């Protein structure tokens, strides 16, 4: 059968074998040539990168960057807006920001991917540029005898709080004449808000949410971008800057930052609007340091005030007053940033652990009974 087919094509068996041999060899050589061409192109690209890398190294000095910037500027201006289509135009290289080492000894991210701010997890210089046109409002309540803490509070704030940024200190007090006069940096001011007092310190604490929400609607929305809400019986002892700013932030309570949720002193009575079951909870947040954008703080404080009003109508008062309602709110409305206990600490009651590299905002020693008495 094979001989018949060859005879039909006019080929002898030997001629057919020769044709098949050279055909296969031709295919093999063709494959080798194509492979060689591919390898040649690859290595030519690799070697072409070597001078470019050497050039980049030689231009890494500030002087080289300056000259290169002038050259790039000149090239674009001489072209009258038309780029040579036969070459890739030079563009300034992107300068990557300095990378900070991630802390491995502490929690730096919440389960919902919000950053936890510790020393060593942010670059102040970059953030200062990002927030350079931002105005920060700080609310503090100095009711009754608590006005005695104002001088130290404001003096240390001027030294450590949002240095280089515009700040408005909103001082809520029933004693405007006792607010001390201190020297302020440029772009910073103290605004005294005259408010009434209450018989019990618990009432003062709970009505703080109401007053912040009212003034947020009346004036804070027009005057500042962010609000930071703090206790007055404290002092700043290290840098507290724009690294804390976020749409909504809370601070880990120094007494519970390393505890499990079963130990948290949430409100456990179901009748209260602040109620949190024992199998729920992320962190225990401190009532003395929270904040965010003005609209978010308004929503938080309004919700807490309404919840406390509802509790009062039922004849119930949450175990830790406004702090209990703050924790209930932040459980349902996750903060976009969480501050470590560096931002609120009590050196008299707690021993400082090695993981706290800095103490930024600390309690001032005081006689609570005397201060709260009247």
Automatic annotation (TrEMBL):
Gene Ontology process terms (BP): carbohydrate metabolic process
Bound cofactor: record note: Binds 1 Mn(2+) ion per subunit.
Binding-site residues, an alpha-L-fucosyl-(1->2)-beta-D-galactosyl derivative: 253, 265, 323, 346
Active site: 323
Membrane topology according to the record: Single-pass type II membrane protein
Transmembrane keyword on record: yes
Cofactor(s) listed: Mn(2+)
Keywords linked to the UniProt accession: Glycosyltransferase, Manganese, Membrane, Metal-binding, Signal-anchor, Transferase, Transmembrane, Transmembrane helix
Binding site for UDP-N-acetyl-alpha-D-galactosamine: 141-143, 146
Location within or outside the cell: Membrane
CDD domains registered for this protein in UniProt: Glyco_transf_6
GO cellular component: Golgi apparatus; membrane; vesicle
Annotated TM spans: 29-50
Family: Belongs to the glycosyltransferase 6 family.
Name assigned to this protein: Histo-blood group ABO system transferase
Species this protein is from: Bos mutus (wild yak)
């Amino acid at each position: 059968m094979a001989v018949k087919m060859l005879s039909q094509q006019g080929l002898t068996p030997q001629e057919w074998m020769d044709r098949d041999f050279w055909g296969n060899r031709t295919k093999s050589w063709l494959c080798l040539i194509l492979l060689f061409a591919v390898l040649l192109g690859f290595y030519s690209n690799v070697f072409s990168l070597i001078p470019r890398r050497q050039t980049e190294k030689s231009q890494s000095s500030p002087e080289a960057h300056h000259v290169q910037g002038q050259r790039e500027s000149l090239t674009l201006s001489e072209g009258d807006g038309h780029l040579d289509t036969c070459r890739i135009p030079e563009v300034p290289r992107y300068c990557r920001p300095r990378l900070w080492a991630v802390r491995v000894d502490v929690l730096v991210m919440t389960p919902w991917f919000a950053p936890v701010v510790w020393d060593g997890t942010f670059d102040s210089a970059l953030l200062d540029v990002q927030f350079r046109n931002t105005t920060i409002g700080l609310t503090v309540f100095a009711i009754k005898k608590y006005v005695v803490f104002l001088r130290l509070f404001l003096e240390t704030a001027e030294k450590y709080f949002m240095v280089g940024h515009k700040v408005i200190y909103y001082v809520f007090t029933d004693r405007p004449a006792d607010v001390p006069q201190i020297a302020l940096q440029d772009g910073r001011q103290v605004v005294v808000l005259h408010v009434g007092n209450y018989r019990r310190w618990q009432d003062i604490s709970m009505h703080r949410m109401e007053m912040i929400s009212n003034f947020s609607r009346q004036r804070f929305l027009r005057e500042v971008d962010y609000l930071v809400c703090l206790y007055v019986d404290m002092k700043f002892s290290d840098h507290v800057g724009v690294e804390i700013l976020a749409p909504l932030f809370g601070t880990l309570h120094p007494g519970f930052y390393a505890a499990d949720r079963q130990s948290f002193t949430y409100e456990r009575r179901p009748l209260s609007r602040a109620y949190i079951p024992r199998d729920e909870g992320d962190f225990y947040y401190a009532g003395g340091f929270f904040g965010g954008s003005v609209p978010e703080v308004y929503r938080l404080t309004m919700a807490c005030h309404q919840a406390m009003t509802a509790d009062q109508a039922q004849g119930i008062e949450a175990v830790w007053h406004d702090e209990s309602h703050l924790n209930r709110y932040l459980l349902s409305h996750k903060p976009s940033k969480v501050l470590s206990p560096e931002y609120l600490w009590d050196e008299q009651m707690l021993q400082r652990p090695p993981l706290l590299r800095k103490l930024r905002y600390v309690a001032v020693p005081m006689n609570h009974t005397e201060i709260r008495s009247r």
